[in-house]
Specification:
Blueprint: E1 2-6, H1 13-24, E2 28-30, H2 31-41, H3 44-55, H4 61-75, E3 81-84, H5 90-103, E4 109-114, H6 117-131, H7 138-152, H8 155-162, E5 165-169, H9 174-192, H10 205-211, H11 216-228
Parallel strand pairs: 1-3, 1-4, 2-3, 4-5
Helix pairs in contact: 1-9, 2-3, 4-5, 6-7
The structure holds adenosine-5'-diphosphate.
């Protein structure tokens, strides 16, 4: 089972990612946890990304994708993975797909956890009181939510078009959300196991740009403008 999750902060990616990983006995690859671990250990990478995390900004793609690629290579013999926190943007979705093709491990399911902002802010502030995460204060929480809506959420439509989207209402208690996710994934499991990588339909990555309202021509134009300035 190969699952990636697309969800706003506070929707329960970490909790549900752990549930899925335990149920299918697959690695739970959580980019936020991996990055926070680097920060805690004061590695070079940790020092380079700390201010991005504290301010709720995205860490540069290269850093995150290299980390995720290494974890996916490790996951190769483990029967799948559950990705938590990646992809978070158009470019990450494209790059992740390329890594998946290269390793013959493209995602079977894109799991979208839906929840309303008010509830997310309530949960994140409650967590802030207990966990003291450096990015769980109201201003940074609102910024992370803004980034989710503008940069991350649009990729949901692309996964829908690809036919691998499963959307779940994450406003309910965690156990009920978990049960619904496992029921959906178990229902799909027999179908997924019979589709070898080479038989999967290749994805047209330009379609992803279209879903974002940008085209190669438009992007080239922006780049040319930028280099002239
Ligand atoms: P949340 O979803 O609650 O914001 P995460 O633990 O998934 O929490 O992420 C925490 C922080 O880690 C993000 O705000 C960002 O700075 C960084 N991060 C995690 N995943 C990525 C990613 N795929 N791309 C860029 N930055 C990331």
């Amino acid at each position: 089972m190969r699952v990636l999750m697309v969800a706003p902060p506070g929707a329960g990616k970490g909790t549900q990612g752990a549930v899925i990983a335990a149920h299918f006995d697959i690695p739970h690859i959580a980019t936020g946890d991996l990055l926070r671990d680097h920060v805690a250990r004061r590695t070079d990478l940790g020092r380079a990304v700390q201010h991005h995390l504290d301010e709720g900004e995205l860490v540069p793609d290269r850093i995150v994708l290299d980390m995720v690629r290494a974890e996916m290579v490790e996951a190769r013999d483990r029967g799948g993975y559950v990705l938590d926190g990646v992809p978070r943007s158009l470019s990450q979705a494209q790059e992740l797909y390329k890594i998946g093709r290269e390793l013959e491990m493209t995602a079977d399911v894109a799991l979208h956890l839906k929840a309303e902002d008010d509830e997310l802010i309530r949960r994140l502030l409650a967590r802030a009181a207990l966990e003291h995460r450096s990015d769980d204060n109201e201003a940074v929480i609102r910024h992370r939510l803004d980034l989710y809506h503008t940069i991350t959420h649009p990729i949901v439509a692309w996964y829908a078009k690809r036919g691998i989207l499963v959307s779940v209402d994450a406003m309910r208690p965690a156990e009920r959300v978990g049960r619904q996710i496992l029921t959906a994934l178990e229902t799909m499991r027999p179908l997924l196991q019979h589709v070898p990588e080479h038989a999967r339909e290749p994805i047209d990555l330009t379609g992803l740009s279209a879903a974002f309202g940008t085209t190669d021509t438009a992007r080239r134009a922006v780049r040319t403008e930028g280099s002239r300035a």
